[in-house]
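Entry:
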Amino acid sequence: MSNKFILSIFFLSLLAACSPTSQLSKVETSEYILTDSSSIPEDSLIKAKIRPYSERMEADMGIILAQSAEPLEKGIPESKLGNFVSDLCFDRVKREYNPSDGRNIDLAFFNNGGLRKSLPAGNITKGDVFELMPFENELVILTLDAVLTKKLINFMASKGGAPVSGLRFSIKDKAALKVLIGGTPFDSTKTYKVLTSDYLANGGDNFSFLSEAIKRESTSIKIRDAIIQHLYIQGKTEEIVRVNLDGRIRNE
């Protein structure tokens, strides 16, 4: 019986308090029928009330933002989807960031787990971006000393790679080699400004060591909004989305 279950109810009757033992005096078994909710008819009044909102949402999610020459998918050590998201976030914040010390961000990194869906070839809709990035994650800037920066890069290498921008390195034996930041070899005497998501900055996906950052700055830019706005501009200028694998992370 798919929509029935047997519920056994036991009534325990104890002997007088002075009695040295207790025993089960009665057992009752009753059968209850559970209603299958799929058989409940829809409330036409409620459905009519929410229809305008659902139709408006469907229309909004169906808005075509841009055209892509090919599917953008995630992967390691680098991927077209990872490069696309990392580069657009990196470029956006570099344009808008106004640091008090005059130093702009050096690199950006994200995680493949945060990219929940590939972007299709052809039409890319607003709904596609919401499926790609369903979370309300924001972009944050962390200032890291050289030791923590190297630890971060080696951690990404140990995971086989990650979406990055402004950063290049090779992976050998799960460690990072030939590290270039902004085209310049890694400097063990410098601090670096790193752009990432608040989820990772908060220690998500085992990045707990980022709590040791020297400084944290909020950009108030949601990653999803940055992607939508970037694609919207590409669509308006009729620029086809094309992304290359450029060897920013390689296996040796």
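The chain is about 30% helix and 30% strand.
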